Each structure stands twice: as C-alpha cells, then as structure tokens.
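ok so i was messing around last nite and threw this chain in just to see what happens. nothing serious, just curious
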Amino acid sequence: MRAIARELVAAVEGLAAIGPLPRVRRLLLPPAESRNSEFSAVELDDGSIGLSFALLGGALAQLHAGKGAGIAGLPALELARRYADEGEGVQRMLGFAAINALTRHLYGRAGYTPPPARGSMGDLDLGPGDHAGMVGLFPPLVKQVLATGARLTVLELREDLLGSHEGWRVTRDAAELRHCNKVMSTSTVLLNDTLAELLGHCRGAERIAMIGPGAGCLPDALFERGVTLLGGSWIVDAEGFKAALAAGMPWSAHARKTAIARDAWPGAAALLARAASVQR
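result:
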C-alpha cells in the first residue's frame, strides 16, 4: 500500500518543475460532534482546497485536540510527503488532504476541469445482468443499485450489519468481491492501507470506481492498478463550503460530483506540460 502512497506523493512532487508551489493557509475542521463531520480539509494560500476522511482512528478528535496545529505556513509539498511516511494516521490524513489540494492547484494552472458525474454510483451503468460490489455499506446507494436489477455484495467490517437480504448481502470476506463484475469503493481505502488487497480481489471486474469527497488525487497510479474511474467533489463555492463545514452543516450545495474515466484522462504528464506552457 505504501508503494501507492509514494507514487501519489511523487506525482505532486512533479509540480515543483512548473514553478513555486503554494503553502498551507489553514486547516479546515467541522465541529467535533456533528452528523456532517466526516471530512476535514487543507486550504492552500492560492485558495486550493483538498479534502480527506477524518474519522479513522479518532483523527477528528485528535485534530481538535491540536494534532494539526502548526501546519499553517508549511510548504504544501512538505505536508503532502507525510502521507507516505510510516508515522501516525493523523499526519498521513493531513498529507493526503495536501495531495488533493495540490492536485486542485495543478488543475487550475493547467485549465483542467474534471467532467461531471452522471450519478452517485461511480457511473457504473448497472443493469440486471450485473453483480455489483460495494466497499463499505452506504444505505442510500443500496436502493439505487437494487433498482437497476443488479445483485449486490457489500464488504463491511461492522458485525451488526452482516447478513443476507433480498437481492443483496453484507460480508466481511473481501474475497467475495471476486464474483462482482463492477465494484465501487470510497477513497478511505487510500488511508487505511487496504487498496492493494481490495484490487487483488477485483481482477475480474470490468469496472472499478473509487468515489467520495476524498477522491481528489492525481489518478495515474490508481488507473495503472485497475481502477477505471475516480469520482470526487469539485468545490465550486469555496466560501460557502468553508462556512458550511465550520458550522457542521451539509456542504454538498457548494460542490459538484466529478467522474474522471481512465480512458478519458489526459494524464498527469500532459497537465504538467500544459501548466508549464502557461507559465512561459
């Protein structure tokens, strides 16, 4: 897994070739107790914002206790490198948010805007003949999947959620994903070191979508490993987003869902070249 982390860091290190990179302006946190407190964010001094899931290992509580203090003013690339470190989870989470923020910075400099998503299920185009895999139980999506006529297998760690239902089942056995021809997962697998195992069980899948607000990194390393779509959140109203996040309110009205398909991705190298040409 850390091989993937090192590649994602190396991808944003390539931005140094196109000129000075921004520093961290601030850490953006939701209230410690809120139904909408799943994500934190790092804002750079050019206004770029990168999100990361904040509930693993009590990370949000640690951030409120001061674990994220001191990152303001750091070179964004220095913070991003913490994602590939062997250290504690909070610093890796902050590093991943910085990677996402630097990716947004590159997109801005290269004039690239990710295409809009066509729905909430990673543009998997499910139908009656499909067997969908879902990494993590997302109740609102279950109904959407079943409405397409597809079967559904959910990979979930919570014991109280395990079991069989009409048309779908919840299991802890990741190997059962090998029966699924289309799979969706959140970007949390990039934080909990489970992506390599997940992809190992999905070699027979024709489509693998990684979705969620934290899916904002350069996708080259993921596409090379079999992911076929990266679906993230593109913040269109930064001030509205920051106000909603700080208040513990839903912020989806200030962002839009995106879907970068592997076969339509121009490649990080092309975007870096485009950004470099703009600087001349």
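not much to say yet. The longest helix spans residues 89-110.
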